[in-house]
Amino acid sequence: MPLVSMRQLLDEAAKGGYGVGAFNVNDMEQIQAIMAAAVETNAPVIIQASRGARQFSQDLYLFNLILAAAELNPQIPIAMHQDHGNSFETCKSAIELGFTSVMMDGSLKEDGKTPNSFEGNVEVTRRVVEYAHPRGITVEGEIGVLGGVEDGHGAGGTGLEHITDPDQAVEFAERTGVDALALAIGTSHGAYKFTKKPDGSVLKMDVLIEIHKRLPHTHLVMHGSSSVPKDLQDIVNKYGGKLKETWGVPIEEIQLGIRNGVRKINVDTDNRLAITGAIRKVLWETPEKFDPRDYLKPARDAMHKVVAERMREFGQAGHAGDYAPIPISEMAAGYKSGKLDPRPSLAGAR
Ligand code: G3H
Ligand code: 13P
Ligand code: ZN
What we know:
With 350 residues, the chain is of the alpha/beta class. Helix content is 45%, strand content 12%.
């Protein structure tokens, strides 16, 4: 199966009432882990690469690995997504490479650190939409600012400083025409999200539910949505790691989100923890080993297990065969005719 548009994956998820995990990759083993999980659970999937991942991997390597994944697993719909694009140029270069979806994260300025103005965000996001849609490519935008810093990207803080304002979310969706909208509801990137199991004072599911009521046809996205399970933390620490006690986003809160319009859930940290724990275990228990396959295989298996669990928990399991891929050229025609125009005011007309 060719790579499919993320918009199609999310439209189908909305019809089926489920969420789709978007898993970050930097290398071959992570792609293989995701595909093994997708095959095991028969799930459509979003594979995403951050700017850091594209740089680390020399993105042509990464992109061709994903094409291999699509060729080897023709029954699995795969969308290839740019995570946290910081500028029009980043998104354009991803589209030129062949990504079927981009995130323009205009919630931050191009430096990836400083919160942007609302107008600045609207302007750059709309520019990306105007470039992407005629080419059949999906666009995700972000309104509000997440907490934390990953690989130099992020505003820092707890995630409570810039919670999405529902009025702004509605205006943003209308003025930009994004296909999917990421919200800031108190989550942060990385392992250190919450200092105890989060309640409504720090994880603002009520804000998400309010936005879904106001934008019932917009695909919502939860970033920073690793659950940071204790068993994964424990494995890392048991074999010499030094993680401090921390809490992530509980699966039941994500499932509440999915019942309220969340269609894409971003997960990276849980897989990083699984990989690191597995590698540490091998090197700790058998320090005489030095063949990378001796630790990369358990690492890949550990990530496969986490991703398969998330695919079941998010509900995407079992849905790979529900639909045939729409060619990207047909998506482009759909945007051109207005049939796929995602602006909320046109929802009734679709
Ligand atoms: O946005 C956060 C993802 O976890 C990607 O992180 O920028 O370190 O690759 P990264
Ligand atoms: P986590 O750090 O919670 O895995 O979030 C990943 C993410 O949002 C990538 O965009
Ligand atoms: Zn993110």
